[in-house]
Amino acid sequence: MALATMDTADLRIALFSGNYNYVRDGANQALNRLAEYLLRQGAKVRVYAPVVPQPAFEPTGDLIGVHSMPIPSRSEYRIPLSILGKARKDLKAFAPNIVHVSSPDPVGHQAVTWARKRDLPVLASVHTRFETYLRYYNMAWGEPVVEAILRRFYRRCDALVAPSESMAQLLREQRMNYDVSIWSRGVDREIFHPGRRDLDWRRAHGIADDEVAIGFLGRLVMEKGLDVFSDTLDELRRRNVKYKVLVIGEGPAREWFEARLPGAAFVGFQQGADLGRAVACMDLLFNPSVTETFGNVTLEAMACGLPVVAAAATGSQSLVDDRVSGRLLPPGAIHQFAEALKSYIEDPALRLAHGRAGEDRAAEFSWDKINQAVADTYIRLIRQKPGTRA
């Protein structure tokens, strides 16, 4: 087929992921949605990632296992080590016309090398700010080293996709690559909308109708800003502000978080309609994390008509309009976060107005349109490689 007439159905994508389905997070859910869309359009997709006996959810598409090992300090995650045996044979037989890498791990590096030897285009999707993780383990001094490693990886790729313009601009400033386009994130409006609010469910979790629930949504790990969240609520208590806390999510730091938030309602992992109900039962979302590249939780809260108080970082800057649909404040600014939360708690009209503005903004995010942008990027990269098979 002539490259000029190529469309989505002509794509054969080899997708490499460090975590496609064994632990649920926003990144791998986005990858599974992408695979579902591509398959629905007639494309061929093969996924190469670690497999475990009991994954968090069933994978979308054909998943081929790669050699991996648990991360010593975080055993729920695995490091993909190499493409060996069955995986390498399968990759050769599949004969992709583009390679998509979603994690700068050893298998990701090997996949890039494999593609470059065959003059195949490589697209890398950026899902998290790996360099910022060191801050939460008292190793911030190592950020420049990690940035240099990431830069070497991403510069070997033909292009990058990032979830937001703010993240894309950061990648350009860090000189990771200069061909950076947007693969945003969508929100399922069947699941996330204000009508999911359930007062009986709130009451069952100890939140009265007239109480304001500050929400946390995400995996319970320190790099999500759990320390900033709890320190900010300590500041609210010192100011004698009345509130309740609703925490949605699971993770290895749950015990620590529960000890820091006595009296909070921890409802664990939620999904589907149950997740939509839990989010809508908040009154506002507090998202202090700086590690996200997009901020799925921020968008989901906005779709439920909630104002969002967030760190002015890549995860929320492209979503929240400061003083219109929420507040964007300097990362770690405990006193400013507390003041913003206090304003929403004490002013129901402000909560309502900013929540409605956020809901209007969330209506702009359609999954099919967003995922087609990735397919269009695949096709553009293939056309730019004269030797690539259509």
Automatic annotation (TrEMBL):
Residues 25-190 form the Glycosyltransferase subfamily 4-like N-terminal domain. Keywords: Transferase. This is Glycosyltransferase involved in cell wall bisynthesis. Signal peptide: none annotated. InterPro entries: Glyco_trans_4-like_N (IPR028098), Glycosyltransferase_grp1 (IPR050194). It holds the Pfam family Glyco_trans_1_4. Gene3D superfamilies: Glycogen Phosphorylase B. The keyword Transferase applies. It comes from Novosphingobium mathurense. GO terms for molecular function: glycosyltransferase activity. The keyword Transferase applies.
